[in-house]
Amino acid sequence: MAPDASPPGSAPGNDRSAGDSLFEASAFERRIASGAPRRWMGWHRRALTLAALLGCVGLIALARWLAETPMIDLRLAAGTHGEPVLQRSPLPALTAHEGRTLQAIGRPGAERVEVDALLLHPSPRWQADDDRRLRQREQHEAVAALLRGGGQVTLHFADGATAEAAVEARGYGRLGVGFWPLAAVALLLYLFAGVLLLARPQPRTLLFTTMSLAQAGNAVYMAVESGAGIGLPPGTLALELPIRALLDLCTAAAALNLFVLHPRPLRWSAPLAAAGWALVPAWAAAYAAGLGPSWWLAQAGCGLASAAALAVASHSHRVEPDPYALV
Q1: How far apart are CA 76 and CA 88, in angstroms?
Q2: What is the reported pTM?
C-alpha cells in the first residue's frame, strides 16, 4: 500500500493543490468553522435591536414632521415654455383656473412671491447653474415662509385672474407616492450597515457601512422632496446641495478606499485612499469659498473617484480574481 503523501497536519487524501481555495479564511470564518458561539444572542443582537428601534422612531418622526408642513393642495406642470401651469387641484376654488399659468403667491400684509419654472423642481442637487440654484432655493424658502401663517393665500395667474386657496397641513395621505418606498430604502440601508458593522467589525466593513449610510441620507432627502402639492418644510433646501454632494463624495471615496484594500492591498493603497478622501474636504472648502461652479466640481470629484475605483478594481481582479470583489 502506497504511503500517504499528504503534508503533515492535513487529512489523508486532501490535496491542497487540487481542492483547497487559494484565499485564506479570515479569523471570523475560522471561528464559525470551529463551532464557537457567534454571540448574536448577546450584545450584538441587543445593539441591532436598539439600532432598528431608533431607525423606526426616526422614520416615524420624519413622517410626522412632513405631515405637519403647511401646503397648498394642487399639482403644477410645465407649460410650453417651462412655466408653472395649474394642472389640477381638489380645491373647488381652483378648479376653474386649471390650465392657467401661476405667476405669484401672496397674502394680505405680506409681500407676494413671484414664481417661475424653478418652483417645479424641489431638489437643488441636480441644478447645475449656481445662480439658478440660488434663485430656486430662495423661491422655495419664500413660499414656505408665506405658507407658514396658514389660513388662505391668493394665487395670481399670468392672465390677471386670482383665486383664494386654503393652506392646510399636508397630512400623511399627501406625503407623496414616493415617500414610503424611499423612506423604506433609507431604513433598509441603515439596518444593513448596522448588521454588517456588528457582524464583521473591520476596516473594509466600515467602508461598506459608510457607503450605505451615505446613500441612506440621499434617500431621506429624496423622500422629503417627493411630497405632493406646494410647500416644503422651511430650511429643507438651505444645505441640500452641500450635504448631498458630500454624501456622494464620501460614497465614491469609500469605494476607492475599499478596492485598494480588497481582495488584496495594492502597493500604492495608502496614497490612493488618501487622495480619494482628500476630495471631500477639498470640495467643501471650494464650496464655502465660492471657488468655481460647485455642482460641476462635485460631479467631477465623484466621477474621478469612481473612475479610479473601477480602474483599481479591474487591476486587482486581473492580479487575483475574486468573485466577491467582482460582484
Answers
A1: 7
A2: 0.79
Which stretch of DSSP H or E encloses residue 206? Answer: helix 203-224
State the average pLDDT over residues 80-87: 90
Q: What is the pairing mode between strands 70-71 and 84-88? A: unpaired
Query: Are 309 and 279 a contacting pair, CB within 8 Å?
Result: no
pLDDT of residue 41: 57
3-state secondary structure of 34: coil
- The secondary structure of residue 70, as a DSSP letter, is E
Asked if pLDDT for residue 33 goes beyond 60, the answer is no
Taking the C-alpha atoms of residue 214 and residue 268, their distance in angstroms, rounded to an integer, is 26
**Per-residue cell: 287:** 464650496
Tell me the CA end-to-end span of the chain in Å, nearest whole number.
47
DSSP states of 149-180 as a string?
T-SEEEEEETTS-EEEEE-EE--GGGS-TTHH
CB of 325 closer than 8 Å to CB of 259: yes
Residue 53 banded pLDDT, cuts 50, 70, 90: very high
Distance of CA 141 to the CA centre of its chain: 22
